[in-house]
Amino acid sequence: MVWAVRVEKAGDPSVLSYEEVDLPEPKAGEVRIRHTAIGLNFIDTYFRSGLYPAPGDGPFTPGNEGAGVVVALGEGVSNVSVGDRVAYAGPLGAYSEERNIPASVLVKIPEGVTDEQAASSMLKGMTACYLLKKTFKVTSDTTLLFHAAAGGVGLIAGQWASSLGATVIGTVSSEEKAQLAAANGYAYVINYKTEDWVARVRTITGGRLCDVVYDSVGKDTFPASLDCIRPRGLWCTFGQSSGPLPDINFGMLAQRGSLFATRPSLFHYIAERWELEETAADLFSVIADGTVKIQINQHYKLKDIAQAHWDLEGRKTTGATVILP
């Protein structure tokens, strides 16, 4: 028996139940890992609330990323060994002391990267990686706007984009978060609670606007995000922390200058094993060499996971959060 968090029925954080569950031996192709650290992500709240359907029927264990030590191997596993430090992003099931997981989704954690850094950056860090290097190839000629700049993905993306030489603009909801974003790569930080952020973007860019807007907020920043993009620029909507987007009239893209739009997901960018290994290696390299510092600003015990969700959805957290089994 191991302790894990279970959800019987979708709802608010009160539905998260901390209980003992049976854990069978790993099947062929699976690995059992003992978690040392677990990541917390906004996508976890989508599965808990029912906004995203959980796979299968009946109760499930949430959580999309974690790190730990391999303690047992199923038949046919050759890419990791017992005792290896490993990390992953997906599938669901991270909110647990131990779990069985397909060996194919695991990557080894290299020297120079801690378990907590890996657990709190696999999903957020690989998301920043594909957004900046694949969805739109950010260079020193790029001007970009990143909403939720003081969030987990935002702090990583700000540092990384700055290291690429881009002009990096971010939006935040408080002065405290503005200071945090400014310390993590954002040349310009806009408090959208007190400023007209579209007008500020226009002023900052001298009317030229942005090559790309990265938007994980959703309802509250639409359609104003489109007004920050120059003709033939890209609107990248990759989350909906404020609520789902309304139905979109694609004529809005033409009216604003033949804009491009995409709704990407990390798991389509790491679907092939080589893509996962390449993206994880890219992330670990910038962590290890100090280009990107993982801001772990909150710790919670696994048994207190409901409070972590309340705080995350209440926008009381900044940077990354680590859950300790």
UniProtKB/TrEMBL annotation:
Pfam families linked to this entry: ADH_N, ADH_zinc_N
InterPro entries in the cross-refs: ADH-like_C, ADH-like_N, ER, GroES-like_sf, NAD(P)-bd_dom_sf, QOR-like
KW NADP (keyword) present: yes
The Enoyl reductase (ER) domain, residue ranges: 11-323
Keywords: NADP, Oxidoreductase
Name of this protein: Quinone oxidoreductase
Natural source organism: Pseudovibrio japonicus
